[in-house]
């Protein structure tokens, strides 16, 4: 790639400005401090060159959802940086990648190499696999910090969407707290498509409140996507995961 002004960079830049405006307005409307909700740009199915364009545009936090595409893309983007960093090291400038899709146990080891955090943890078996994987990655100096964990909550109990139901949330959280190579950071929610969106966001806020009262170090709430970020910020989201509104419609073939 790519001059700073190729057509795709311009397009991404325009959509990014619009989304950042929406996010800032939502944070302000909720009487929250500026910058209190992170924007995770969801780059799943889009090529590494798009991540490079977004870096050029100043974005630093990205969401990916599938191995092995994600690991390959991250490695490719970070490889350019290692070359550049010899000249101008700047720790604040390092991109971070979160895993937002479900993790199969056998993919845990590769996810632990590149992910800052996993947003979609919903079963004891996956907690075990990620703890072992993160411990190995720490041993091998493939990562410097414990792997962040957000527990995906199911608001309606639909097994298709994944997520742990509220009744099982605390015991799963205790398992993460006890794991040496993991750090419990909070909850993640995908609002069900059926029913009243406001009802689901009110439920989200309620479940998060109860959770925070017990696990006060794990105050993060990953909620809100292209279509519902305003409602999610009003419900207390600290991280919106936005794909389509920035990247455009996802291509059918992943890269
Ligand atoms: C794809 C995806 C998103 C982004 O959704 P958009 O509607 O494209 O913004 C957010 N969260 C998760 C878990 C996803 O898989």
From TrEMBL:
Per UniProt, the keywords (alphabetical) are: Pyridoxal phosphate
- N6-(pyridoxal phosphate)lysine occurs at 44
The family assignment reads: Belongs to the pyridoxal phosphate-binding protein YggS/PROSC family.
In terms of Pfam families, this protein maps to: Ala_racemase_N
Q: Which HAMAP family match?
A: PLP_homeostasis
Q: Superkingdom of this entry's organism?
A: Bacteria
Species of the source: Gordonia lacunae
Cofactor entry: pyridoxal 5'-phosphate
**Its biological purpose:** Pyridoxal 5'-phosphate (PLP)-binding protein, which is involved in PLP homeostasis.
Tell me what this protein is called.
Pyridoxal phosphate homeostasis protein
Q: Example GO molecular function term? A: pyridoxal phosphate binding
Coiled-coil portions: none
Where in this chain does the record put each Alanine racemase N-terminal domain? 18-251
């Amino acid at each position: 790639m790519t001059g700073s002004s190729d057509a795709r960079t311009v397009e991404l830049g325009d959509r990014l400005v619009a989304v950042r405006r929406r996010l800032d307005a939502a944070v302000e409307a909720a009487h929250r401090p500026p910058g209190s909700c992170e924007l995770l740009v969801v780059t799943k199915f889009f090529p590494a060159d798009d991540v490079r364009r977004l870096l050029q545009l100043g974005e630093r936090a990205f969401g990916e959802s599938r191995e092995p595409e994600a690991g390959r893309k991250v490695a490719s983007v970070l490889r350019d940086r290692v070359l550049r960093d010899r000249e101008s090291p700047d720790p604040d400038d390092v991109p971070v990648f979160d895993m937002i899709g479900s993790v199969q146990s056998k993919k845990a080891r590769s996810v632990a190499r590149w992910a800052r955090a996993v947003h979609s943890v919903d079963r004891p078996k996956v907690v075990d696999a990620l703890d072992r994987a993160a411990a190995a990655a720490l041993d091998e100096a493939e990562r410097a910090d414990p792997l962040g964990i957000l527990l995906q909550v199911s608001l309606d109990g639909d097994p298709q969407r994944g997520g742990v139901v509220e009744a099982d949330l605390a015991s799963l959280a205790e398992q993460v707290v006890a794991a040496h190579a993991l750090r419990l950071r909070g909850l993640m929610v995908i609002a069900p498509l059926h029913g009243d969106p406001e009802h689901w966001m009110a439920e989200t806020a309620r479940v998060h409140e109860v959770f925070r009262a017990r696990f006060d170090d794990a105050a993060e709430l990953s909620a809100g996507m292209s279509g519902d970020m305003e409602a999610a910020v009003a419900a207390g989201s600290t991280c919106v995961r936005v794909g389509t509104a920035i990247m455009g419609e996802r291509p059918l073939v992943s890269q």
